[in-house]
């Protein structure tokens, strides 16, 4: 069930950092960080996503090039197709993810590099400024020396969970190496208190000088650098996750470095999980006196997530889509529990896996149907039984074929429209500064509620513009509102963005183009003083638009206030609104409507805001159709929330307890139900006994009752048969259980329970008794 | 030395003086001394002065301080007898030379050794070999045994292998002892800083040595030299039982002896390589006069009141010599005064004088806490008290917590305060309980002497004291 | 490159400066009187005035009957330190020759170093250190004057190390410098000293190893003897070269080296106070103190530099006390001089200092802290002048002062708070003002926020109060009000104590219990979380994710987990987060923290 956690456990036993024993005692859980530290010494060249892939995907790569058939009559090569489909789909997704990270990180890297460069320049100037003979000694000038401080760049990851950045520092190192700086990369486990300051120095020397020094003397570095006369490039020392380091060792290390800055161009880069201020807690004041800090902010996880949403989920190409409910679940998981993109990606991958494992037709995501396929009949059969295809009746395979192709193309088109619509919404939200992730989550929610559908039977409170959804205020109405009364400039920008975003929805493109033109001409025309003269030029039309929209808005407002705002009425309003707009009505009371140019300008702008808002709203209604409504969605869209849920949410303790309490669940066995018998596993017996004993149990009593159980059943011969087919026959089959064996089994069982975290010793004072952890 | 030189020298003296006036602010007595030097001593060649000072310094610096130490005749005699007894009827012996540092244990031992070696060598050659160990250097068994083996090798012209293991060395030692015993050769172990050997874990080395001495097959003499009078109390029972409780006590020289001895140290002997006899006698008589003078007596008295150990006095004289103005080349009382000032350090007071106002505030509030019977307090408590002080009277010295914490850390660095129970790395520094290392008296003095201390702070302090 | 042992010895690159020191002499000699034979002689006279006569035995008689011309020349080159081994200036000497000259021009430091010149030079380089420098020079004495161990101590950044090194360097004394901080084990300490004495160069050829391997003190003594003999021999050899005329310079140096008194070789141990933390460090120090006694070499000048006073070392231990020299902290006037010296552009800064220095020096008297705090303020101060609003004359200064006045206190309150200058990209600055991490600075998942808050509650409240605070039966609030009220009244005092003592520790179970309580609370506060409660458990069951979050918090130092041995069972936890942070968090998820905190 929790297999990838299981793997982590196994990979985790050997490396648990001293400061990272964590909750893994209280219950069997590991921290993501150790995943990084598990990859041995200096650097951990593993992409989180990749590591997941290696874990899950690797299994299949070696095992078989095809997936296990999900129905009995599925032919072999369907499995192969699904496998390939999965591979290419995920490869595509992963490439995009990588790109997103790449783009976001290199910005920071560039800044760091620039900063280092500037610092060097500054120092060079300083040395020019000082008298020439001082700069060759670190110790000559009390004042200058102490005024020269070690420059430290604090990279704030802005997420207490550093697992998104397992690769970041390695990338940074390579990036800086490209600028031929000398870079050393130190991990927190270099800074253990037991090894002292020697360890980080040693590994630094190893990485920079490239030798294995016998003493960790900075002098080695200095003389090496002197020999390295050609390029006076700086020496950059990167410390990942400074918070995890032992502060004492770290402080000593930093001070030693700062003793040498006068001679070596040393620059320190520290990765801080939380914020730069945390260094104040980490290092004593006597140390920070030697430092000059510079803050760098990594993009926050939300920004990464936004990037991934835009770059992966809203990309039309891979036909495979993740259902709204699943997405919602993933997002809420991200929001509630670890807010790391890594786990989001992993979950995404799981969803992908699940889909291709479970769905017989999932290979339709990538397959091209024009190529002739063998055993098509199976394909068509399974297609025709899909509920989403039930609607239309097919006589022959031919039109099943047609229908499938049609459905596919329709699905594709719909997805394109959907994604571009969402993109537009996000773009608009971005410009009126709203949190894209939240907006996206809400879109999903509404969509899942089928709210955007403009069919009559949608419930009353399900209008787009109602401000309450499931009791929490929602953003989209706010967004529309802001859009409505946003300035001309913003409207302009938004329209531009839309135009470039909507290549899949031509009509929207034209609409936006129109509004934009009007806006332009309007603004140009408003400036001209005489406007009454030309009654029926471009401006009149916009006036019509204005009136139309105004009226619509007003109607809608009151309709909502008198909550008669049922959607079809709105729709009708909208419809005739559009009609009135498009149709060229004669210029009625335009002059009355607009008194003075200034006022007219204002109204004009607001009007354009309204126009675009209504346009957006219309688009939402039109294109935000949940994929579940589409034909062939079973094959293309993964909607099974429960499976992904049980993959993601682990309750190890409950699970273990259940399994231990009733082993007969998974051993098909009728003998032992609830009653303790020696045919159970030792740990099961012990657990039961402890349960009976309650909170505190005396070890000796436990042992007595334990051996009693074993003896009792050992004395009865006739259970032997049943015992035999349980896994553990060693104690049960023989007649009298000798004490040593019983003791051994008891200890084994106890230690198992302790390892699992259900038992623990009650404490020093009551060392003879054990305590139950629930 | 031909006639033209004095005039030249005077010219130098003059310009040197000018240099010095520019830079140095010289002590009160300096001016007439300057005048004196110009008039009375036209012909002090600076090289001669340098020579003289060099002589004095080397005399004060070399380690066999034969001249300052009272020659402990009877002690020497005791040691000598011990040697002769050991050597003549080749038996095993062990002895401790105890006495405070620098009152001639090592020196008289060395003298006796020279004597003994001289006699023994002509009487029966090849009867003694020496092994010297120092507790500071060969603290651990391994290096001690290694050192012993090395010296024995040198003594017997064997090749010493650096890579020899502990066991090799110990086996080598026992076999060597046996050999020596067979050839009636006494091995003399001189253990300097004996107490450090005794503080070693399980005193393995001592035990081995003394244990082998119990048997007939070894002939050795162990001399322990220690400045701890209770050195033999440090021994474990098993070691002490094997140790012959022979102790020789060395007493520090008495004050009046020193009074007599000290001037001799600064007298230049006429037969030394200094050609300028006139200068020498001049120098000597000036020195004598100074030592006769009254305030010099006071200075000496206060010096000896602090610490009568010869090393201290040597430091004093050395400092005095170093402060001689080379352009004059003679002692003056101010030299000794300065030396006295240099040696008399109370660094608590000094650092109290140096702390900033804010740090003084913190110290005073800590003191107030202590006088309130708050035995355990940390930075938060102190800061609270500090704030309360400022609440009662408003001053310009109320700073936010961060600044105060920095000052607090500075105090920690100066070791005016320290953590009561080690620094716990995981908890913020403001929570660690601290304790004050300055006595109330010192703090009071510090407040008085501090140039920056505001009066209101003094009042607070006094107020707390008298309440 | 003799006489500066650290030159290739690696501690710092000496080559250039070393050359700076000799090249003037070489060049001067050549320039003054062209023929190379002269050099030997005038140098010998140079030595004659400083080193005892024995050094330059027979030639001394010849010295005195000098013609006036020779005499002036003699005075010019009087008491010059020893000559370069090769009179022909080597390339690097030439290269550094010009800059050498301009240095002597701009600083007025001629290559010749009489004690007084040296004294002057040091004083104007280190203001407000006259008496200490005078004492030090006295103690150093001349090249062959033996010395007792010195112990130099004083606060941070009072120029202990700098003064010593400068003095020794200008006097061309042979010395080896080792800082106990950079060389953090005895072995590195010993080896770096030996390297400097034997001028060993680490290079890729010797795999950047040191000259000798020595990690025991007893080995060190032996090696030190050899190294020092070599060094002294070289030094004395240099002297002898100076004195012996070129003809008999040939091979016989070793012979007459013994005749000469050996030059003193100075060993400088910096930061010896760190030795106290080493294992057996005290013993090591006392052994180092008696180094010359152990090695039997009298010409060792031992100098110990420490930031702690001698009491920390020598009180109680029966070890030999060295001669203490105290570098006092700077008084306000000294600070004024020093800071002024550091600023090239004069009187504006001086007026600025006279205005603001006093209040600042009340907070701290560290030059470093002051200089940067004042620097920040000074930028504000001269801003009007830069923009040309105020011109720097008298009333202009008054105006400036009135302008700066309001800023002083704020600057005061930032004194000695270390500076973090933000380099964050504009994108992050202007983008996304929304989101909780806008004020928090970093992102926390909902679950970990609850965990953090509950941990904080655990650390703040006494465990006895939990029952009254969170019993899950309804009407909690009223009951809590009453009970907590009484509780507050009852034990306000010791509660205050507890607060001052810092956050308390708690077992994991308590944390989880409170966590589930408050998250459940939250969920019936708002029904959205009720839904959350439905579909996946926040708070109801402790899922592995929650525990994962705990470990995450621990790694971020927001939570501290005490070590626990397997038999002791439950490890204790503590909340390290500051109250401000917690307040922010609870605001970000509008959690009523004050209801649960047991405030006074």
What topology emerges from the helices and strands here?
The complex is a heterotrimer of chains A (774), B (467) and C (600).
Chain A (H helix, E strand, L loop, with lengths): L2 H11 L18 H6 L10 H16 L12 H54 L12 H6 L2 E7 L11 H11 L3 E5 L11 H12 L8 H10 L7 E5 L7 H13 L6 E7 L5 H5 L2 H4 L2 E7 L3 H13 L7 E2 L1 H13 L4 H18 L17 H9 L2 H4 L6 H35 L4 H13 L19 E2 L2 E2 L1 H10 L3 H14 L4 H22 L10 H24 L5 H16 L7 H4 L3 H27 L9 H4 E2 L2 H8 L3 H10 L20 H12 L2 E3 H17 L4 H5 L5 H4 L5 H18 L2 E3 L7 E4 L2
Parallel strand pairs in A: 1-4, 1-5, 2-3, 3-4, 6-9
Antiparallel strand pairs in A: 7-8, 10-12, 11-12
Chain B lengths: L3 H20 L6 H10 L6 H16 L11 H16 L4 E6 L6 H19 L4 E7 L6 H15 L10 H17 L3 E7 L1 H5 L5 H11 L5 E7 L10 H5 L5 E3 L5 H11 L11 H16 L1 H13 L3 H13 L10 H11 L3 H8 L2 H15 L5 E2 H14 L8 H14 L2 E3 L13 E4 L3 H10 L5 H12 L1
Parallel strand pairs in B: 1-4, 1-5, 2-3, 3-4
Antiparallel strand pairs in B: 6-8, 7-8
Helix pairs in contact in B: 3-14, 4-5, 6-7, 13-15, 14-15, 16-20, 17-18, 17-21
Chain C lengths: L5 H4 L5 H18 L3 H15 L8 H6 L3 H9 L14 H17 L7 H11 L4 H11 L9 E5 L5 H11 L4 E5 L6 H12 L19 H27 L9 H7 L5 E6 L10 H9 L1 H5 L4 E7 L4 H4 L8 E5 L4 H11 L3 H18 L3 H20 L7 H20 L6 E3 L3 H5 L6 H4 L5 H15 L5 H4 L6 H15 L1 H10 L3 E3 H18 L1 H9 L8 H12 L3 E3 L10 E4 L3 H10 L4 H4 L4
Parallel strand pairs in C: 1-4, 1-5, 2-3, 3-4
Antiparallel strand pairs in C: 7-9, 8-9
Helix pairs in contact in C: 2-6, 3-11, 7-8, 10-11, 11-12, 16-17, 17-18, 17-19, 18-19, 22-26, 22-28, 22-29, 26-27
Function (chain B): Component of the origin recognition complex (ORC) that binds origins of replication.
Keywords (chain B): Chloroplast, DNA replication, DNA-binding, Nucleus, Plastid
Organism (chain B): Ceratopteris richardii (Triangle waterfern)
Describe this structure in words.
The complex is a heterotrimer of chains A (774), B (467) and C (600). Chain A has 774 residues and is α/β, with parallel strands linked by helices. Chain A is built from 33 helices and 12 strands. In chain A, strands 2-3-4-1-5 form a 5-stranded parallel β-sheet, with helices on both faces. Chain A has a 3-stranded antiparallel β-sheet with strand order 10-12-11. A two-stranded parallel sheet of chain A has the order 6-9. In chain A, α13 packs across α18. The radius of gyration of chain A is 34 Å and the shape is flat. Chain B is of the alpha/beta class and 467 residues long. The longest helix of chain B has 20 residues. Chain B is flat, with a radius of gyration of 30 Å. Chain B starts with a helix and ends with a helix. The N terminus of chain B is likely disordered. Chain C is α/β, with parallel strands linked by helices and 600 residues long. The termini of chain C are far apart. The chains are: A alpha/beta (774), B alpha/beta (467), C alpha/beta (600). The interface between A and C is large, with 126 and 117 residues. β5 of chain A pairs parallel with β6 of chain C. Chain A: GO terms for molecular function: DNA replication origin binding. Chain A: It is found in: Nucleus. Chain A: It holds the Pfam family WHD_ORC.
């Amino acid at each position: 069930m929790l297999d990838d956690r299981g793997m982590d456990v196994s990979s985790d036993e050997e490396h648990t950092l001293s400061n990272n024993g964590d909750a893994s005692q209280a219950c069997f859980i590991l921290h993501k960080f150790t995943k990084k530290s598990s990859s041995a010494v200096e650097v951990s060249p593993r992409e989180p996503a990749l590591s997941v892939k290696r874990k899950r995907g690797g299994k299949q790569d070696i095992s078989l090039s095809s997936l296990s058939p999900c129905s009995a009559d599925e032919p072999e090569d369907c499995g192969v197709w699904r496998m390939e489909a999965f591979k290419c789909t995920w490869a595509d997704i992963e490439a995009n993810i990588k790109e997103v990270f790449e783009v976001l990180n290199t910005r920071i890297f560039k800044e760091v590099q620039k900063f280092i460069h500037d610092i060097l320049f500054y120092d060079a100037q300083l040395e020019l400024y000082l008298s020439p003979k001082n700069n060759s000694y670190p110790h000559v000038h009390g004042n200058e020396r102490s005024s020269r401080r070690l420059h430290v760049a604090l990279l704030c990851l802005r997420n207490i969970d550093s697992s998104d950045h397992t690769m970041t520092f390695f990338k940074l190192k390579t990036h800086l190496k490209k600028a031929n700086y000398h870079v050393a990369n130190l991990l927190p486990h270099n800074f253990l208190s037991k090894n002292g300051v020697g360890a980080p120095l040693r590994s630094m020397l190893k990485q920079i000088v490239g030798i294995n020094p016998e003493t960790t003397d900075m002098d080695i570095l200095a003389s090496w650098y002197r020999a390295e006369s050609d390029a006076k490039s700086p020496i950059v020392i990167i410390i990942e996750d400074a918070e995890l380091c032992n502060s004492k060792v770290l402080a000593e290390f930093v001070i030693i470095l700062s003793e040498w800055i006068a001679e070596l161009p040393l620059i320190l880069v520290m990765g801080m999980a939380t914020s730069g201020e945390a260094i104040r807690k980490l290092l004593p004041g006597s140390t920070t006196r030697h430092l000059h800090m510079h803050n760098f902010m990594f993009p926050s996880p939300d920004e990464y997530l936004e990037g991934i949403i835009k770059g992966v989920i809203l990309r039309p190409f891979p036909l495979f889509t993740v259902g709204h409910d699943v997405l919602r679940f993933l997002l809420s998981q991200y929001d509630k529990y670890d807010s790391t993109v890594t786990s989001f990606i992993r979950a995404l991958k799981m969803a992908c896996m699940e889909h291709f494992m479970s769905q017989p037709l999932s290979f339709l995501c990538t397959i091209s149907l024009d190529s002739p396929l063998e055993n098509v009949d199976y394909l068509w059969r399974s297609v025709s039984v899909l509920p989403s295809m039930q609607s239309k009746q097919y006589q022959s395979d031919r039109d099943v074929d047609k229908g499938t192709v049609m459905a596919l193309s329709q699905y594709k088109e719909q997805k394109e429209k959907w994604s571009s619509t969402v993109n537009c919404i996000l773009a608009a939200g971005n410009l009126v500064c709203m949190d894209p992730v939240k907006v996206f989550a809400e879109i999903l929610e509404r969509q899942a509620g089928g709210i955007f559908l403009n069919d009559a039977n949608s419930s009353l409170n399900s209008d787009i513009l109602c401000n309450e959804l499931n009791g929490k205020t929602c953003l989209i109405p706010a967004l529309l509102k802001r859009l409505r009364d946003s300035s001309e400039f913003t409207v302009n920008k938004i329209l531009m963005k839309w135009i470039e975003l909507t290549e899949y929805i031509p009509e929207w493109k034209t609409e936006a183009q129109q509004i934009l033109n009007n806006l332009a001409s309007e603004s140009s025309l408003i400036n001209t003083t005489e406007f009454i003269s030309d009654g029926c030029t471009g401006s009149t039309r916009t006036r019509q638009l204005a009136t139309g929209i105004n009226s619509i808005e007003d109607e809608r407002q009151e309709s909502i206030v008198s909550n008669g705002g049922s959607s079809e009425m709105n729709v009708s309003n909208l419809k005739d609104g559009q009609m009135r707009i498009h149709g060229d009505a004669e210029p009625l009371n335009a002059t009355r409507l607009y008194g003075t140019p200034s006022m007219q300008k204002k109204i004009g702008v607001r009007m354009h805001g309204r126009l675009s808002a209504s346009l957006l709203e219309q688009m939402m209604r039109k294109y935000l159709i949940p994929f579940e409504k589409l034909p062939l969605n079973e094959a293309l869209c993964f909607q099974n929330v429960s499976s992904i849920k049980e993959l993601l949410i682990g309750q190890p303790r409950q699970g273990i307890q259940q399994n231990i309490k009733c082993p007969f669940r998974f051993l098909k066995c009728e003998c032992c139900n609830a009653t303790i018998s020696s045919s159970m596993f030792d740990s099961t017996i012990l657990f039961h006994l402890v349960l009976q004993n309650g909170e505190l149990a005396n070890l000796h009593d436990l042992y007595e009752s334990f051996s009693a159980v074993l003896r009792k059943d050992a004395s009865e011969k006739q259970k032997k048969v049943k015992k035999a087919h349980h896994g553990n026959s060693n104690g049960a089959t023989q007649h009298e259980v000798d004490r040593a064996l019983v003791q051994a089994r008891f200890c084994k069982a106890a230690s198992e329970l302790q390892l699992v975290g259900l038992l623990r010793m009650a404490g020093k004072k009551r060392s003879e008794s054990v305590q139950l952890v629930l | 030395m031909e006639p033209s030189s004095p005039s030249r020298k005077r010219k130098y003296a003059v310009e040197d003086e000018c240099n010095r006036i520019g830079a140095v602010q010289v002590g009160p007595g300096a001016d007439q001394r300057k005048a004196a030097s110009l008039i009375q001593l036209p012909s002090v060649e600076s090289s001669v002065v340098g020579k003289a000072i060099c002589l004095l310094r080397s005399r004060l610096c070399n380690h066999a301080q034969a001249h300052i130490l009272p020659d402990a005749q009877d002690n020497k005699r005791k040691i000598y007898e011990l040697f002769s007894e050991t050597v003549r009827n080749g038996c095993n012996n062990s002895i401790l030379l105890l006495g405070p540092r620098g009152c001639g244990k090592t020196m008289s031992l060395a003298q006796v050794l020279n004597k003994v070696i001289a006699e023994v060598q002509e009487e029966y050659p090849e009867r003694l070999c020496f092994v010297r160990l120092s507790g500071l250097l060969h603290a651990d068994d391994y290096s001690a045994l290694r050192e012993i083996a090395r010296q024995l090798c040198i003594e017997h012209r064997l090749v010493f292998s650096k890579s020899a293991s502990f066991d090799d060395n110990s086996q080598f030692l026992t076999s060597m002892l046996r050999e020596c015993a067979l050839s009636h050769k006494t091995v003399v172990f001189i253990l300097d800083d004996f107490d450090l050997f005794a503080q070693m874990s399980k005193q393995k080395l001592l035990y081995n040595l003394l244990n082998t001495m119990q048997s007939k097959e070894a002939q050795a003499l162990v001399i322990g030299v220690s400045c701890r009078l209770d050195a033999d109390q440090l021994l474990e029972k098993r070691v002490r039982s094997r140790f012959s409780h022979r102790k020789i006590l060395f007493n520090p020289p008495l004050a009046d002896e020193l009074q007599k001895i000290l001037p001799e140290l600064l007298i230049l002997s006429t037969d030394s390589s200094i050609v300028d006899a006139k200068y020498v006698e001049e120098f000597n008589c000036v020195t004598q006069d100074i030592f006769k003078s009254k305030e010099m007596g006071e200075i000496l008295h206060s010096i000896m009141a602090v610490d009568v150990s010869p090393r201290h006095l040597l430091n004093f004289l050395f400092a005095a010599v170093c402060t001689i103005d080379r352009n004059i080349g003679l002692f003056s009382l101010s030299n000794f005064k300065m030396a006295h000032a240099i040696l008399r350090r109370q660094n608590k007071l000094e650092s109290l004088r140096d702390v900033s106002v804010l740090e003084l505030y913190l110290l005073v509030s800590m003191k107030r806490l202590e006088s309130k019977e708050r035995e355990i307090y940390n930075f938060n408590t102190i800061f609270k008290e500090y704030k309360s002080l400022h609440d009662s009277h408003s001053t310009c010295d109320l700073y936010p917590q961060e600044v105060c914490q920095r000052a607090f850390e500075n105090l920690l660095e100066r070791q005016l305060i320290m953590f009561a129970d080690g620094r716990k790395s995981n908890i913020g520094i403001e929570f660690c309980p601290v304790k004050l290392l300055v006595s109330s008296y010192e703090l009071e003095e510090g407040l008085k002497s501090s140039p920056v201390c505001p009066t209101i702070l003094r009042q607070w302090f006094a107020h707390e004291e008298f309440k | 490159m003799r006489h500066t042992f650290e030159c290739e010895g690696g501690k710092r690159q000496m080559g250039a400066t070393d050359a700076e020191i000799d090249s003037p002499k070489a060049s001067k000699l050549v320039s003054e009187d062209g023929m190379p034979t002269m050099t030997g002689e005038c140098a010998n006279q140079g030595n004659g005035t400083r080193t005892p006569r024995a050094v330059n035995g027979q030639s001394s008689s010849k010295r005195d009957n000098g013609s006036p011309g020779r005499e002036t020349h003699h005075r010019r080159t009087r008491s010059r330190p020893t000559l370069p081994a090769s009179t022909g200036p080597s390339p690097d000497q030439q290269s550094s020759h010009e800059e050498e000259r301009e240095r002597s021009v701009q600083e007025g430091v001629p290559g010749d170093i009489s004690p007084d010149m040296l004294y002057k030079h040091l004083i104007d380089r280190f203001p407000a250190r006259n008496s200490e420098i005078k004492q030090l020079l006295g103690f150093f004495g001349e090249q062959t004057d033996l010395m007792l161990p010195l112990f130099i101590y004083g606060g941070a950044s009072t120029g202990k190390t700098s003064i010593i090194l400068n003095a020794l360097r200008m006097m061309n004394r042979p010395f080896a410098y080792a800082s106990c901080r950079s060389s953090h084990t005895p072995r590195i300490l010993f080896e770096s000293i030996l390297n400097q004495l034997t001028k060993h160069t680490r290079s890729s050829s010797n795999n950047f190893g040191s000259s000798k391997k020595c990690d025991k003190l007893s080995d060190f003594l032996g090696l030190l003897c050899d190294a020092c003999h070599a060094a002294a021999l070289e030094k004395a050899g240099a002297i002898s070269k100076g004195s012996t005329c070129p003809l008999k310079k040939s091979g016989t140096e070793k012979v007459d080296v013994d005749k000469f008194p050996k030059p003193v070789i100075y060993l400088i141990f910096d930061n010896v106070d760190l030795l106290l933390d080493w294992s057996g460090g005290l013993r090591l120090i006392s052994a180092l103190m008696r180094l010359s006694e152990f090695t039997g070499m009298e010409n060792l000048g031992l100098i110990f530099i420490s930031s702690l006073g001698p009491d920390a070392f020598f009180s109680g231990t029966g070890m030999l006390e060295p001669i203490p020299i105290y570098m006092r902290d700077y008084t306000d006037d000294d600070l004024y001089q020093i800071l002024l010296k550091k600023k090239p552009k004069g009187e504006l800064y001086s007026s600025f200092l006279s205005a603001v220095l006093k209040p600042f020096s009340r907070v701290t008297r560290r030059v470093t802290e002051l200089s940067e705090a004042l620097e920040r303020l000074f930028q504000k101060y001269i801003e009007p002048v830069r923009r040309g609003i105020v011109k720097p004359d008298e009333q202009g200064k008054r105006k400036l002062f009135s302008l700066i006045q309001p800023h002083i206190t704020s600057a005061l309150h930032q004194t000695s708070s270390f500076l973090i200058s933000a380099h964050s990209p504009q994108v992050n600055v202007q983008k996304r003002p929304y989101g909780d991490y806008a004020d928090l600075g970093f992102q926390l998942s909902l679950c970990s926020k609850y965990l953090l808050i509950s941990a904080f509650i655990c650390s703040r409240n006494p465990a006895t109060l939990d029952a009254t605070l969170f019993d899950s039966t309804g009407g909690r609030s009223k009951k809590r009000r009453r009970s907590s009220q009484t509780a507050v009244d009852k034990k306000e005092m010791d509660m205050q104590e507890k607060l001052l003592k810092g956050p308390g520790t708690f077992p994991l179970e308590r944390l989880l219990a409170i966590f589930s309580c408050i998250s459940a609370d939250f969920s019936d506060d708002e029904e959205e979380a009720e839904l959350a409660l439905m579909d996946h458990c926040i708070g109801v069951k402790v899922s592995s994710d929650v525990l994962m979050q705990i470990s995450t918090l621990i790694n971020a130092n927001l939570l501290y987990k005490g070590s626990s041995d397997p038999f002791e069972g439950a490890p204790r936890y503590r909340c390290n987060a500051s109250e401000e942070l917690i307040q922010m968090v609870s605001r970000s998820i509008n959690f009523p923290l004050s209801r649960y905190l047991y405030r006074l």
